[in-house]
Write a structure and sequence with these properties.
This protein is mainly beta. The chain is built from no helices and 15 strands. Keywords: Signal.
């Protein structure tokens, strides 16, 4: 029989001759647990185990193969860590278990089986929501456990998203603000350079990050680009300025600052429909994500 892997009972192997007991023949029922091969430190007498193990079988409650015509039967099973399989007609199945003296894992009770080959750890009737996993339940009360206790939903790793707040004033008009996760506010670190934009318009910004641990406020070079359609014509603008960085945390991947600049229409893409210049006031408070390179 398979060596047990648990506490003081870990080295004991209990050999049972129970085949006849599960046939329903009362003349062949065993009145006690016969002692089998015993390793040092384990006292297994004619009446069975001396004490319960400190550690329960890892496969307690997992299905095994035993059929009998009594309400509960137990027979040795080398495929179960606890060494025995319990047939339980009320629950409509059989499961790996162990012999016992008086105590069992939560959800199981130490009781004599009807074939009198126990006592063994017999599952209580499953009750979903009581916080104890009984036979037939996959989980009970833990995070991700389904309402019927029959499955566990693995947590989904939500992708990290960028976000923050950006405020812009164009042509001296009233400032407009947008806040939220991308695409409302997008900030991505790619090849060591931060690119950000918002849903306010098609303006994009690019800058190198300050050195980690740098004291603020500080000045950081900022490049800006904008392509917009005016009267059917594409107008392309660009600018470069020094932004004032008011807060920066490399570990938290956050940065905040402001800038004032003038976008100039590129001569090669600046028709009569395009404004020659656009004055912009910018404030930003960003949370960036790293983009795989």
């Amino acid at each position: 029989m398979k060596r047990q892997k648990m506490g003081v009972w870990a080295a004991a192997v209990v050999v049972m001759s129970l085949g006849a007991a599960c046939s329903g023949d009362s003349n062949n029922r065993r009145a006690s647990n016969d002692a089998g091969e015993v390793d040092a430190g384990v006292d297994v007498g004619d009446v069975g185990l001396v004490e319960d193990p400190q550690e329960e079988p890892g496969d307690l409650g997992e299905p095994c193969n035993l059929i009998c015509n009594l309400s509960t039967c137990v027979d040795e099973d080398e495929g179960c860590e606890g060494g025995v399989c319990v047939s339980h007609q009320e629950l409509g199945g059989s499961y790996c278990s162990r012999l016992c003296v008086e105590s069992c894992a939560p959800g199981y009770s130490c009781q004599q089986t009807e074939d009198e080959s126990g006592p063994a750890c017999v599952s209580n009737s499953p009750e979903c929501g009581n916080g104890t996993v009984e036979f037939g339940e996959v989980c009970d009360g833990e995070e991700g456990c389904a309402e019927d206790c029959l499955s566990v939903e693995e947590p989904v790793d939500e992708p990290e998203v960028s976000g923050g707040t950006m405020t812009m004033s164009l042509y001296g008009n009233e400032p407009q603000t947008v806040s939220g996760d991308a695409p409302a506010v997008r900030a991505e670190l790619s090849f060591g350079r931060l690119f950000f934009s918002s849903s306010l318009n098609a303006m994009t910004f690019g800058m190198d990050l300050p050195v980690p641990g740098a004291s603020t406020p500080l000045e950081q070079y900022l490049e800006i680009g904008l392509v917009e359609n005016v009267g059917g014509a594409n107008c392309a603008y660009d600018a470069a300025t020094m932004a004032t960085i008011s807060a920066f945390d490399a570990a938290e991947q956050t940065i905040a600052g402001s800038a004032e600049f003038t976008l100039n229409c590129q001569s090669s893409m600046c028709g009569s429909e395009c404004s020659p210049t656009i004055d912009v006031e910018l404030e930003f408070d960003l949370r960036w994500v790293e983009v795989e390179e």
